[in-house]
Automatic annotation (TrEMBL):
Domain of life: Bacteria
Record organism: Fodinibius sediminis
Protein name, UniProt field: Sulfur carrier protein ThiS
InterPro entries reported in the protein's UniProt record: Beta-grasp_dom_sf, Mopterin_synth/thiamin_S_b, Thi_S, ThiS/MoaD-like
Gene3D superfamilies xrefs: 3.10.20.30
Pfam family for this entry, one: ThiS
CDD domains in the cross-refs: Ubl_ThiS (cd00565)
Length: 67
């Protein structure tokens, strides 16, 4: 299926949001990650069951420290 992740088109056979995050080395248990699918924030407790669909637009934001 075709997904758009942070503005970049990606082909994948991933079915759930959790699996997608693991594929991109963003473990579902890692703190500081926020995910929105089609402009809707998906809470961490939904990641394992959230089914992705072709043409979904996904934004993954990782909090970082700086100063």
């Amino acid at each position: 299926m075709k997904l758009t992740i942070n503005g970049e088109e990606v082909e994948t056979d991933t079915e759930t949001l959790s699996t997608l995050l693991q594929k991109f080395d963003m473990s579902g248990s890692e703190k500081g990650i926020a995910v929105a699918v089609n402009d809707t924030v998906i809470t961490r407790d939904q990641w394992n069951s959230y089914q992705l669909n072709s043409d979904d637009h996904i934004e993954i934001i990782r909090a970082t420290q700086g100063g």
